[in-house]
Task: inverse folding
């Protein structure tokens, strides 16, 4: 009978600082890369994770964050503003580096460093991810009859209004987070 085992570990302050340093270096490196190259590298990682038979479940779960970040960049309706767009691209540049900490080919562990970095990105972009997910949820239920001409004509305006409201909420949440001292 199969059994789930929970393994938890905490990254100490020095460990987090180490990963954040790698993250900052990747951001600097991003300036040298084209958006298409970064996006392609992240898509390739997602594909490798999905195709690798022995990829742990927690890694597969973590990759969903990368998918949301990519979708946020590419979603024309959401139209991510220039500053957060650059931040997301800079963060995703880590995955454009073929020489990460643990080679992906090592069974069971190869994606561990990627999963850790994804968790750091998830924390870093918590508000942006929240906003995008709110927008997607709204859009998916925005019109009861999207095939009608009336619905088609008013949807862009409704999406634009929701996007403005969400951006305000995201910006407010980011500002509040800067002043948290714990």
Result:
């Amino acid at each position: 009978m199969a059994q789930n085992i929970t393994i938890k570990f905490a990254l100490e302050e020095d460990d987090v600082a180490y990963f954040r340093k790698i993250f900052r270096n990747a951001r600097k490196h991003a300036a040298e890369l084209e958006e298409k190259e970064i996006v392609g590298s992240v898509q390739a990682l997602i594909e490798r994770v999905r195709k690798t038979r022995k990829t742990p479940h927690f890694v597969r779960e973590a990759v969903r964050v990368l998918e949301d970040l990519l979708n946020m960049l590419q979603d024309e309706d959401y139209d991510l503003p220039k500053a957060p767009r650059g931040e997301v691209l800079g963060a995703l540049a880590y995955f454009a580096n073929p020489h990460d900490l643990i080679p992906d080919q090592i069974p069971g562990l190869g994606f561990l460093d990627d999963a850790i970095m994804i968790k750091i990105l998830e924390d870093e972009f918590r508000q942006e991810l929240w906003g995008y997910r709110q927008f997607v949820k709204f859009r998916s239920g925005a019109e009861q009859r999207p095939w009608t001409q009336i619905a088609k004509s008013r949807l862009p305006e409704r999406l634009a209004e929701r996007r403005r409201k969400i951006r305000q909420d995201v910006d407010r949440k980011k500002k509040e987070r800067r002043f948290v001292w714990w």
